[in-house]
């Protein structure tokens, strides 16, 4: 029995020869750093790093290599996995018709785990070659005060970083806000141009939010620094889209099994759907890669595209996951095999989400909505319902509640949106319809589960948290639709409730 080769630079050519997998066509020894990225996970590796690898395979932008940077204890796993294979990894994309594309991505060239040596992390960020610092730190990573929506200045780690920066003690820094701001301060004091901070997270106006929060933090360190950041640092908005489930042992086994020619060992491959989209505002301080040559839509105004994606795709994910989990489903494609779920999501997108969008010339929204249904049903991707249910307290307020508020303000119906919120409330009770425990994964887990524990004695208990829902509890149109759905979920279950809600909006 032949021993499988391990993915690394020394074995790369042999792996390509023995398996036929596509490998970088460029000389990675000639790739130099230009980007530091916080949040190197599956999505970044299937998306931004893939686009850059595509450019490099065309002989372009070899001076824009990516250095990954981690700040969370869990990032150690990614550091070690990538370091053990020269920062190479496998990306497999899977189409609904079963077609697969497998290739090795080489655009990440190093990884720094900041807690090991914060001063080294700052020096890495501050070096002249770094022209972009990008972020995929999830909605929960931006230190948002859930009650106010503002930057949480009193977060103990933020307080500690502020004091460390004021004392010049970079070796004490803990957060990406502190590390990035320290590097900007070095640039400022040296009279050098700053890097661009490029958010790629699923937040409406992600660049605007990053701009506001970094300026707020920098100003809290010193007013002079805050003014310099305000006047000199670019924060482009972006919209990113590619369904990328968490890597499983089955995914690793698939790479090892390979095709009829054989496989190889990859510690942390990535699997995603074949669809990908990136819409990026053209606002950079020190230039950027030729992203448009790799299929990125570089535009002047991202907002119409991001609203389309956040309110149709992301909010629809929330529309399927809680109902689906309550009904006993674990895989997203199993949920989508049920016609009632497909009809519910299409009705939500058509009746409630689409009226809140801005004009999108040249975009066929009906085709886009049906394309989303097909993407959700892609069994080859093996996306899971629990993944979509995670971090709901970060997601629902940003993706769904703006739809609710705009429709209420315009006098439009909110029955379907209210049903989604009610399904979250029922899910947060922590037990499904088969009396099986639900592992609620949320930054505010204890809070939302405590709120949900009162659902059966007070149908509005979950909504009474104004820090999450604001004044929605005061709106009778919303609360009536919400209570009707929640009561139905308690007495009839998810599937019968969906049937009833659909009957109500389609009569």
TrEMBL record:
Transmembrane segments: none annotated. It catalyses: D-mannitol 1-phosphate + NAD(+) = beta-D-fructose 6-phosphate + NADH + H(+). It is an enzyme of class 1 (oxidoreductase). InterPro entries: 6-PGluconate_DH-like_C_sf, 6PGD_dom2, Mannitol_DH, Mannitol_DH/Oxidoreductase, Mannitol_DH_C, Mannitol_DH_CS, Mannitol_DH_N, NAD(P)-bd_dom_sf. Keywords: NAD, Oxidoreductase. Residues 34-292 form the Mannitol dehydrogenase N-terminal domain. This is Mannitol-1-phosphate 5-dehydrogenase.
